[in-house]
Amino acid sequence: MLALFAVGAQVVKASSTLGAAPDSVFRIWRNRLRIEYEAAALFAQLGKELAQHYGKHDEVVRLCEGAEEEELSHAKMCIEIIKYSGEAPAFNYTRKKIQLGPENLTSEQKILYTSLALSCVTETLSTALLTEMQNAAEPGLIKDTVHQILRDEVKHSRIGWAELNRCHQNQNLTWVQPYIPLMLKEALQADIQPMLTRQEAKDDLSAWGILSPLDASLIMENTITQIISPGLQRYGLKI
Ligand SMILES: [Fe+2]
Ligand SMILES: [Fe+2]
User: 89: which DSSP letter?
Assistant: First the structure.
């Protein structure tokens, strides 16, 4: 943080505008902090399950372990932004055991379910949204943060596609098809969940790394059509 202040007047300018940001901005960044902790715990759990099947030196296991660390570094970055609200949340992560996917699935199926829902769907959508946020954000702390998170989310989305590719070689994937529409629905609802009042949704918050619900919704729909759907089709799955 101190280093950021030291690199130039432009950063100080962005940070000072962050101090003047409306409450809605910090509400969204607090929610992002919660999501980063959740993502870290999910990748940790996915890595553990994968290690039981493929061993701890497996490439996808190592990627999941890296993803947990990266999600936690995103959480720390969110905290630095939230500090401008006057509140200073403590870093508060506990690696809790999470049930991956519906209870009735086998452990192998839970791996594929989670790889699809968490990584192919959620992280791919996140990558598309962050790309747009990065373009719109004001230079400084927000843009730097979005840039760093984006760089990692691209990697996290690849984890799911890599695991889907492996599962495709080892098992029949038809069982997962009925779950896909719900995965997409949940991801869409989670991202556009109303966290802004009708008035706040009309404000242009893009300088602070927040897209309007309408823009976010359009970007996600395009990403599903242009990236996720063709990706799934390669493995005989459809949205
Ligand atoms: Fe993240
Ligand atoms: Fe991520």
Answer: P
pTM across the whole model: 0.90
What are phi and psi for residue 134, nearest 5 degrees?
Answer: -60, -40
Q: Please, how many CA atoms are within 13 Å of residue 234, restricted to the half-sphere of its CB? A: 14
Residue 94 sits in a domain whose CATH number is 1.20.1260
Task: Say how many domains are in the chain.
Answer: 1
User: What are 121-134's pLDDT values in tens digits?
Assistant: 999 999 999 999 99
pLDDT (tens digit per residue) in 136-148: 999 999 999 999 9
Let me know if residue 8 belongs to a domain. Answer: no
Domain carrying residue 225: 14-233
The neighbourhood of ligand 1, an ion, using CB within 5 A, equals 36, 71, 74
In-domain check, residue 2: no
Task: Kindly give the distance from the C-alpha atom of residue 151 to the centroid of ligand 2, in angstroms, as a whole number.
Answer: 9
* Ligand nearest to C-alpha 78: 1
Query: Cα 188 from chain centroid?
Result: 12
- Which ligand lies nearest the alpha carbon of 32? 1
The structure tokens listed for 138 are: 């004001």
